[in-house]
């Protein structure tokens, strides 16, 4: 904690105030006496690492959970919310981090789920559809109200989620990571909508891991660390460095490309590989893409949502079958091999969604870590407990998982440590090529830096690393080479000395207005 | 219960290599405490309940369901369900009866009388084949497990009825001069005063426990039941695991079929009707999650004993069969309720244990007293 707490009173009247909120789960204090104000017609952004207590605080404010102690005042009157619908009735709604849509229902039915508009013969579907169209027009998204949610891409689903919260006409709108799957253009539209809302007096609470993006929209910044508020400031007076410093309490970067080792032979060779779209076989999500990666090299794949990054990596790993082309591992064609056979030959994938594809939630940390390398500790017919334990303990040390031990349930770890378990699991197979799909997704900046440090150490020892990301700053960290994907093809290739603007332009991303210039009059308040 | 956590003590005779801490005991032990409560209550209500002889009799009733439940547990751990085990049990008995009558090979003009061990092996192969069909339908052809095994429930039952034209094989004794005697050994004999059926259940449970806790296959099973996508990306042969569990479940059903028809010295085509539901109930009472990935042999066996000891106790104190059905159903619902509470307590998990996919109604007379099966068909 080398940055002293910085506090600055905010302008505007307070709509909702949380006073001395304490929340404990068993023995751990998720929130330690937090005071948090929401101001009328303002955007208040809550910054903080994973596990800092952001989501817990928002759950309390939206009535999902109740605080252990402390009080909430709405318009100066003390209130208690018995449930989230109770809070919604009082004008507080929340867009959750995880999508909570029914994929089998249409956009219209999702938006009005639980609040159907009564008509003469049951539900007034026509009115619902009309309002849905209006909402979609506001969000500048061309989605028909009758489209099934499962047919939408992830970003559009997030738009529907936002539209649903907007349809309630709330006074306070909490947005927990609303942009994680949105393209830059969609984010711009969302920001426009947010400005419209605040102009109408709606108060917004905004949470995002995209710090730069959040800085653009926020009026007021609150930083939470380890369950306590470490700083509050008017957004005009702060910059990215201020946020990061207060979030993590130290200055650091995401690392630089490891040097001092020569690249080896070509470890992975992707030759004219195509992958067909799951929904329509005529469209190619990866279009005759070729790529060589040498051992010891770190390659970063940058691209927007839908650029084909995930499909490319899943195809290389064997999860998706290729519509054409060949994949060579150390010169041998592995295109026809199963996932297990590819792992055995030294090609592993750390998937994008660690909850869905990376971890077995019902198993312990140790069983997750050893899952991919069970063969290494089978003696005769049986597993050797002692060998497994030494493998697990070694792996926990190796990737620096913070855990009570191999027997701890996987759910007890923070997001960053869970990600390290997924990476550790694949590293125990002694791979030659490691693919990581958005390894930094949903983990805090400290864990991010640790993951990158781990990867560069391994690369120095000869591992070929390919990782994808949707954050430009991450491209410019440890990667020796940056590949930009756009519509299933490589649109540009850069060395480690590329600039953010070059990379973003190559991806087809609209260059966001450079907020650094707007904030040139940053002053350090200490 | 599913993990590889170190420092495991052997605290329960039936759960090899699987131990627990105090907290786990309280959570997982509820079925065990229920069993103790059942024993205490019925011992107070009836002077005949608390005796070694009665326990052994009840245990031999439990054995049939216990064996089915071990197979069912493997399937449920995988996130599936096997509704065909009751039919497979009946079909196995019929096939055993058929083989014991002698197989007439018209082309060669001879009648083969296979010895009992050959009959037993052939019947187990048959159960494995039924499981193979289930497994292939589910793993490769992507038929939902519920539907695939429901279909097999009808097909296999129909096959059993066709085999005998609805009649029952009553003579399974074999003839000494044909060298095929000894079929009744499984159901009637005792080793060290313990019914053979109970010993078979113990052995199967032990093998099951070793498979689950000490082999790569067991770990694969827990992993693919907990999260199939993650398991697949970790190199687990998920399809092979899936097919294997249905085959193992089929084999368990066949073994249970052999024991039942041996106990009854007859093989009826309707034997085992609705037994799959009792087996599922035992697994659920034993704390397994129907969503897969959670559960163990110890709990499942305790679950089977809870159902068996409760049913027999109600028979002994003379409660009407209709009330027995109500009691058993209530116990099952209570168990699922507690499961839901147990899994809700764990943080960061998608919602677990749902309700059983089928209503737990069953014919109490069959469950409580397999001897009534004698007249079936």
From TrEMBL, chain A:
Limits of the ABC transporter domain: 16-251, 268-512
Record keywords: ATP-binding, Cell membrane, Membrane, Nucleotide-binding, Repeat, Sugar transport, Translocase, Transport
PROSITE patterns for this protein: ABC_TRANSPORTER_1, ABC_TRANSPORTER_2
Cellular component GO terms, alphabetical: plasma membrane
GO molecular function: ATP binding; ATP hydrolysis activity
SMART domains found in the cross-reference section: AAA
Topological type in the membrane: Peripheral membrane protein
InterPro entries cross-referenced by the UniProt entry: AAA+_ATPase (IPR003593), ABC_carbohydrate_import_ATPase (IPR050107), ABC_transporter-like_ATP-bd (IPR003439), ABC_transporter-like_CS (IPR017871), P-loop_NTPase (IPR027417)
Intracellular or extracellular location(s): Cell membrane
Pfam families: ABC_tran
Family annotation (Gene3D superfamilies): P-loop containing nucleotide triphosphate hydrolases (3.40.50.300)
Protein family according to the UniProt entry: Belongs to the ABC transporter superfamily.
Descriptive protein name: ABC transporter
Naturally occurring in which organism (per UniProt): Mesorhizobium amorphae CCNWGS0123
Taxonomic path: Bacteria, Pseudomonadati, Pseudomonadota, Alphaproteobacteria, Hyphomicrobiales
Automatic annotation (TrEMBL), chain B:
GO CC list: plasma membrane
Start and end residues of each stretch annotated as Disordered: 350-377
Transmembrane segments: 31-50, 56-77, 89-111, 117-138, 145-163, 194-212, 243-261, 273-292, 299-317, 323-341
Pfam name, any one: BPD_transp_2
UniProt entry keywords in alphabetical sequence: Cell inner membrane, Cell membrane, Membrane, Transmembrane, Transmembrane helix, Transport
Keyword flag Membrane: yes
Location in or out of the cell: Cell membrane
GO molecular function: transmembrane transporter activity
Superkingdom assignment: Bacteria
CDD domains named among the record's database cross-references: TM_PBP1_transp_AraH_like (cd06579)
Subcellular location, principal: membrane
Keyword Cell inner membrane part of the UniProt annotation: yes
Topology in membrane: Multi-pass membrane protein
Name listed for the protein in its UniProt record: Inner-membrane translocator
Lineage per the UniProt record: Bacteria, Pseudomonadati, Pseudomonadota, Alphaproteobacteria, Hyphomicrobiales
């Amino acid at each position: 904690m080398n940055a002293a707490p910085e506090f600055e009173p905010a302008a505007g009247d307070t709509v909702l105030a949380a006073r001395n909120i304490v929340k404990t789960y068993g023995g751990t204090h998720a929130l330690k006496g937090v005071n948090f104000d929401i101001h009328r017609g303002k955007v208040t952004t809550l910054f903080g690492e994973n596990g800092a207590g952001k989501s817990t605080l928002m759950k309390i404010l939206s009535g999902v959970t109740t605080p252990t102690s402390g009080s909430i005042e709405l318009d100066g009157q003390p209130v208690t919310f018995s449930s989230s619908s109770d809070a919604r009735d009082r004008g507080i709604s929340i867009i959750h981090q995880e999508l909570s849509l029914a994929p089998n229902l249409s956009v219209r039915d999702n938006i009005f789920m639980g609040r159907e508009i009564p008509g003469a013969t049951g539900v007034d579907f026509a009115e619902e559809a009309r309002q849905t169209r209006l909402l979609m027009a506001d969000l500048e998204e061309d989605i028909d109200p009758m489209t099934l949610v499962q047919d939408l891409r992830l970003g559009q689903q997030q738009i529907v989620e936002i539209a649903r919260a907007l349809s309630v006409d709330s006074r306070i709108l909490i947005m927990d990571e609303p942009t994680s799957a949105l393209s830059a253009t969609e984010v711009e539209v969302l920001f426009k909508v947010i400005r419209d809302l605040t102009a109408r007096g709606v108060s917004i609470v905004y949470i995002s891991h995209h710090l730069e993006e959040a800085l653009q929209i926020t009026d007021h910044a609150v930083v939470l660390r380890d369950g306590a508020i470490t700083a509050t400031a008017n957004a005009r007076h702060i910059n990215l460095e201020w946020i990061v410093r207060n979030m993590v309490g130290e200055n650091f970067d995401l690392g630089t490309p490891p040097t001092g080792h020569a690249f080896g032979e070509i470890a992975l060779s992707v030759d004219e590989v195509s992958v067909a779209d799951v929904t329509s076989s005529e469209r190619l999500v990866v279009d005759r893409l070729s790529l060589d990666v040498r051992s010891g090299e770190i390659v970063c794949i940058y691209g927007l949502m839908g650029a084909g990054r995930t499909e490319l990596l899943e195809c290389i790993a064997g999860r998706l079958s290729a519509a054409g082309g060949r994949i060579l591992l150390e010169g041998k064609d592995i295109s026809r091999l199963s996932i297990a056979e590819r792992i055995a030959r030294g090609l592993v994938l750390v998937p994008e969604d660690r909850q869905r594809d990376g971890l077995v939630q019902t198993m312990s940390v140790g069983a997750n870590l050893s899952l991919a390398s069970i063969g290494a500790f089978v003696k005769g017919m049986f597993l050797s407990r002692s060998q497994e334990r030494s493998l697990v303990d070694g792996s926990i040390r190796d990737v620096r998982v913070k855990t009570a031990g191999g027997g701890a349930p996987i759910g007890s770890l923070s997001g960053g440590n869970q990600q390290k378990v997924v990476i550790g699991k694949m590293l125990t197979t002694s791979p030659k090529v490691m693919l990581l799909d958005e390894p930094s997704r949903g983990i805090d900046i400290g864990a991010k830096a640790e993951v990158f440090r781990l990867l560069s150490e391994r690369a120095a020892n000869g591992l070929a690393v390919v990782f994808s990301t949707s954050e430009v700053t991450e491209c410019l960290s440890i990667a020796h080479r940056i590949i930009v994907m756009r519509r299933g093809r490589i649109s540009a290739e850069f060395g480690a000395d590329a600039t953010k603007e070059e990379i973003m332009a190559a991806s087809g991303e609209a260059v966001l207005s450079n907020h650094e210039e707007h904030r040139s009059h940053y002053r350090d308040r200490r | 219960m599913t993990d590889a956590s170190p420092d495991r003590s052997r605290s329960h005779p039936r759960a090899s290599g699987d131990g627990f801490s105090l907290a786990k005991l309280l959570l997982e032990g509820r079925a065990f405490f229920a069993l103790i409560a059942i024993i205490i209550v019925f011992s107070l209500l009836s002077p005949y309940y608390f005796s070694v002889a009665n326990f052994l009799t009840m245990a031999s009733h439990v054995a049939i369901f216990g064996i089915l439940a071990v197979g069912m547990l493997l399937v449920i751990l995988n996130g599936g369900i096997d509704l065909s085990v009751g039919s497979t049990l009946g079909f196995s008995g019929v096939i055993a009866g058929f083989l014991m009558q002698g197989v007439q090979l018209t082309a060669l003009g001879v009648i083969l009388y296979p010895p009992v061990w050959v009959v037993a092996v052939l019947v187990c192969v048959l159960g494995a084949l039924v499981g193979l069909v289930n497994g292939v339908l589910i793993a490769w052809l992507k038929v939902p497990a519920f539907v695939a095994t429901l279909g097999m429930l009808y097909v296999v039952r129909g096959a059993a009825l066709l085999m005998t034209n609805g009649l029952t094989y009553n003579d399974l004794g074999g003839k000494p001069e044909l060298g095929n005697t000894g079929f009744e050994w499984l159901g009637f004999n005792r080793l060290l005063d313990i019914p053979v059926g109970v010993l078979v259940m113990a052995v199967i449970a032990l093998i099951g426990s070793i498979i689950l806790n000490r082999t790569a296959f067991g770990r694969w099973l827990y992993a693919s039941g907990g999260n199939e996508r993650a398991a697949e990306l970790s190199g687990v042969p998920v399809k092979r695991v899936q097919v294997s569990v249905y085959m193992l479940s089929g084999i368990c059903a066949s073994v249970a079929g052999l024991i039942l028809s041996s106990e009854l010295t007859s093989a009826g085509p309707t034997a085992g009707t609705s037994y799959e539901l009792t087996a599922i109930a035992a697994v659920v009472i034993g704390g397994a999650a129907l969503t897969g990935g959670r559960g163990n042999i110890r709990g499942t066996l305790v679950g089977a004993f809870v159902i068996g000891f409760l049913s027999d106790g109600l028979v002994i104190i003379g409660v009407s069969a209709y009330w027995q059905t109500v009691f058993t159903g209530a116990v099952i619902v209570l168990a699922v309720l507690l499961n839901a509470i147990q899994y809700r307590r764990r943080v960061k998990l998608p919602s677990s244990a749902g309700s059983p996919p089928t209503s737990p109604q069953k014919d109490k007379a069959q469950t409580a007293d397999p001897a009534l099966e004698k007249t079936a068909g």
